[in-house]
Amino acid sequence: MKASQFLISTLKEAPADAEVVSHQLMTRAGMIKKLGAGIYTYMPMGLRVINKVAAIVREEMNRAGAIELTMPVIQPAELWQETGRFEKMGPELLRIQDRHERDFVVQPTSEEVVTDIARQEFKSYKQLPRNLYQIQTKFRDERRPRFGLMRGREFIMKDAYSFDRDPASAQISYQAMAQAYRAAFDRFGLRYRAVAADSGAIGGDLSEEFQVIAATGEDAIIYCPTSDYAANIEKAEALAPKGPRPAASKPLTKTPTPGKSTCADVAELLNVPLQTTVKSLVLATDELNDKGEVAKSQIWLLLLRGDHDMNEVKVGKLPGFEQGFRFATEAEIVAHFGCKPGYLGPLNLKQPVRVVADREVSVLADWICGANEVDFHLTGVNWGRDLPEPALVADLRNVVEGDLSPDGKGVLAIERGIEIGHIFYLGTKYSKAMNATFLDENGKPQFFEMGCYGIGITRLPAAAIEQNHDAKGIIWPDAIAPFTVVVCPINPDRSPEVKTAAEKLYAELLAAGVDVILDDRGERPGAMFADWELIGVPHRVTIGDRTLKEGKVEYQHRRDAEATPLAVGDAAAFVLGKLKR
Amino acid sequence: MKASQFLISTLKEAPADAEVVSHQLMTRAGMIKKLGAGIYTYMPMGLRVINKVAAIVREEMNRAGAIELTMPVIQPAELWQETGRFEKMGPELLRIQDRHERDFVVQPTSEEVVTDIARQEFKSYKQLPRNLYQIQTKFRDERRPRFGLMRGREFIMKDAYSFDRDPASAQISYQAMAQAYRAAFDRFGLRYRAVAADSGAIGGDLSEEFQVIAATGEDAIIYCPTSDYAANIEKAEALAPKGPRPAASKPLTKTPTPGKSTCADVAELLNVPLQTTVKSLVLATDELNDKGEVAKSQIWLLLLRGDHDMNEVKVGKLPGFEQGFRFATEAEIVAHFGCKPGYLGPLNLKQPVRVVADREVSVLADWICGANEVDFHLTGVNWGRDLPEPALVADLRNVVEGDLSPDGKGVLAIERGIEIGHIFYLGTKYSKAMNATFLDENGKPQFFEMGCYGIGITRLPAAAIEQNHDAKGIIWPDAIAPFTVVVCPINPDRSPEVKTAAEKLYAELLAAGVDVILDDRGERPGAMFADWELIGVPHRVTIGDRTLKEGKVEYQHRRDAEATPLAVGDAAAFVLGKLKR
């Protein structure tokens, strides 16, 4: 490609609404152009990256035996009503009526449509397993779309769906996808981690996220540097503390803590470690009657150490929390504790509540909690002596750096990541809802065991940039760069030799199958280099009159601080050598 | 590809709603699956065809210097309001509101968005010409979607848009697209015609349709077998008749024609050629006041020969018809003619009307028309003697087979076609509406001269089938076949030699870069052959125990009545030879 034949459009300044670096750089490099909130045109430079990502994903999906199709973007509501998602999904689901006032959705995913295809196509166990995928435009009507392609409303996703005859076979299909994902992610040239994720209400352990590591990522990735353990924060288990609870050594004392309603404030006032304080979280679970009204509410008191955060996914799995939970209202709190929030604790309750202690809280001695009286806390609290042993002890908290690794092979570290892929064993959730069955060897209908597998095709370039950039711009990995090599002649209009040498090198690299661009725009050197550094093409060869007279050209990788002089005749071979590595 | 790893799903019967053969065969061959009215999943077999079509189009667009981008499917209403299309377009434009009740459309084309990009990106004449294109999902909410992919609601289109500094440059851009379209259509392997089309209100002659020739096509293509003249029916000019009007030879006579209200009935009753009768079409044009209400209506009488049909596009270009026209109401007709339709004519009017005669009517003598009295016609009517010469003579009619070709090089013939591509010089229609300008050499803002260029990517396979099928199924041209070659081993499970020979041939063709499928499903020969004949793979090699014992396999093109025996060792070379042609 010659630059004069392409659309290169760089900006000095990022738009005011671009908060993250990938959004800033993709806009400045002319890769995306905003059309509306969360809606972007993929400009020619950006589309090249997206197409390379899609091509790698497609190859690895095909290699893994998945079969490509394309389901409609606009889907009739009927199938979405079969699973209940038409009603259950919030306003993220973009709903439309056509000219005949029939309901449709703009697909955010395609579980319903693909399950409908499976129940029509896969009549017999002999046709299984099958994996169908598409690379397709999707829409999620995010309330506050931002961060460019990181959280757009319209986006491109690869979504695959596997159909198996039984859980054992579904496991194999799932593992084949896990392997295909690793193969694709290895090819992208990004640092990433596959982390265990919570599989929600389905149960089982078969869910993994593929996280591109970046300091700016919104997800916390938990991993063990001395083993291969990795999980997301929702999933990572906080092990039970080793060793028994120390013996009580202090008396129970009501201590004035005027105006100190947080654990941190209390610890500071009393000059004790935050780890000796306990926070009281009051939750409620509701029982509904046949009409869907609340018939009865149960109040729960969750106790966590002052330095720990509650993990909602773990709490959601407590016995009794199957139908969901909520934070208690202030009225409920006052009724049970006789006190407003900020000074709550498990002693001197007005009405009984169910107490659940985090594992770490259950082994504390001489701890501190609210006195259920404004401006007072209790110190020297001890289980068994001052209050009954907790009715339930559970893992309620997010792990923190330094916690023991669940695999027993070290301690946990935390880094930030951007979720780009998610693979998920679905079981029969959708096949049951849609009565999607095949006939087994005995001619008996069985529900499909399903899995679903997504990769955010348009999100990946943004994540790659969050991981790979510097003050000058983007630094693409070779595999997904818009162009792999740029040839930059300096003032070619003034030097026919420079022009000829640049065109010769361009032709040689093109003939060798390299995705090379020749900058024949006639820009001045400073502007030309700034453009390519911003756009982030990884390999650059500069051809100038001064060095060419000595038979030299200059090679510079986007990460190199200095250029490397090369004999002009060796340049093509040198670049090809760089690309092979 | 091995068939066992692919999704092959054929049906004996077409669905009841499939009216046209392409819809029937694509459904039966498992290429598409209906999800809703006019909304189809492109199943794996169909997607392969669509992808091949798209790849050819993309290559030819790139070769012509067009640059690919991807504009959003869901587009904010604001830009569509700038051109007025948000209001003007009918219910075909699918409108949506997002969660914040902002208006959006699902794009049917992208003139507004691409013009918005151009006015931001192309600031200077130095950046022109440019051509931007996308291959993208589109939606038109057809009132009565039908015919499968021929007239779907959701479909894939290639849409390109050119931006030029002046009309002369726009002509060059237009011609480059015309050439790229011919190159792509030549590669598809279909019989087609590029026909001149009417360019509507824009004026000028720069509009061509690319029509795939098929007896079932809904468009009439006019062409001259002895020259390269070709146009669609709207566009093809009916030349003025040669020679002068004959002299009047019969008296004007009022003739009873009870119950005969059509020219055909009258001609039959009076035993005269239909060509001597004249039909009276009463039209109205409305003048609107500032409030958009009808202030005044003008009544027009159009006279056409009884054997000719009115051409609405030509009539729309009459002076006075710039703001559109309509058929007159019965009340208007009675007021002006004193008679209900069926017996109308230009003589004995109650109120004056403007008379426009078709060129052929203007040279008639002794003609027949309605007497403006029920059950009576006039015969022996003559211009000048019985009524004034027509105020206006124009080409009002569709051409018919045998008319003189407008290029003077023969007579016209008519065949049927399916419109797959349309290229169009837009002028400044959109750039003016959106105030999209660039700066010329003098620093003065100028409106972009635009063109737009579409190819129906998902419609093309349907058109290909309408042109190429037989009683057994589809017959694909090589370039867009889902697979180019199928290798069919007969009962491979019973003969290891057959299995080995089939796998060897498959591997050889694969290694030679052929898009080959090996049918390893273990189907019985009859079912296997029926599948591939239905699916329409053009080249088949059959390997059976009986012939293999004699060292032979059998080649058969999908159009061949008989198979050709080949030495097993020559099979790959033979097939490759067939593909090269």
Automatic annotation (TrEMBL), chains A, B:
Enzyme Commission numbers on file: 6.1.1.15
Biological process terms in GO annotation: prolyl-tRNA aminoacylation
Domain comment, as recorded: Consists of three domains: the N-terminal catalytic domain, the editing domain and the C-terminal anticodon-binding domain.
Signal sequence annotation: none
Cell compartment(s), UniProt: Cytoplasm
Keyword Aminoacyl-tRNA synthetase: yes
Lineage: Bacteria, Pseudomonadati, Pseudomonadota, Betaproteobacteria, Burkholderiales
EC class (word): ligase
Protein name per the record: Proline--tRNA ligase
Family designation: Belongs to the class-II aminoacyl-tRNA synthetase family. ProS type 1 subfamily.
Boundaries of every Aminoacyl-transfer RNA synthetases class-II family profile domain copy: 38-477
InterPro entries: aa-tRNA-synt_IIb, aa-tRNA-synth_II, aa-tRNA-synth_II/BPL/LPL, Anticodon-bd, Anticodon-bd_dom_sf, Pro-tRNA-ligase_IIa, Pro-tRNA-synth_IIa_bac-type, Pro-tRNA-Synthase_IIa_type1
Organism: Hylemonella gracilis ATCC 19624
Subunit structure: Homodimer.
Function noted in UniProt: Catalyzes the attachment of proline to tRNA(Pro) in a two-step reaction: proline is first activated by ATP to form Pro-AMP and then transferred to the acceptor end of tRNA(Pro). As ProRS can inadvertently accommodate and process non-cognate amino acids such as alanine and cysteine, to avoid such errors it has two additional distinct editing activities against alanine. One activity is designated as 'pretransfer' editing and involves the tRNA(Pro)-independent hydrolysis of activated Ala-AMP.
Listed GO MF terms: aminoacyl-tRNA deacylase activity; ATP binding; proline-tRNA ligase activity
GO CC, one annotated term: cytosol
Catalytic activity: tRNA(Pro) + L-proline + ATP = L-prolyl-tRNA(Pro) + AMP + diphosphate
Alphabetical UniProt keywords: Aminoacyl-tRNA synthetase, ATP-binding, Cytoplasm, Ligase, Nucleotide-binding, Protein biosynthesis
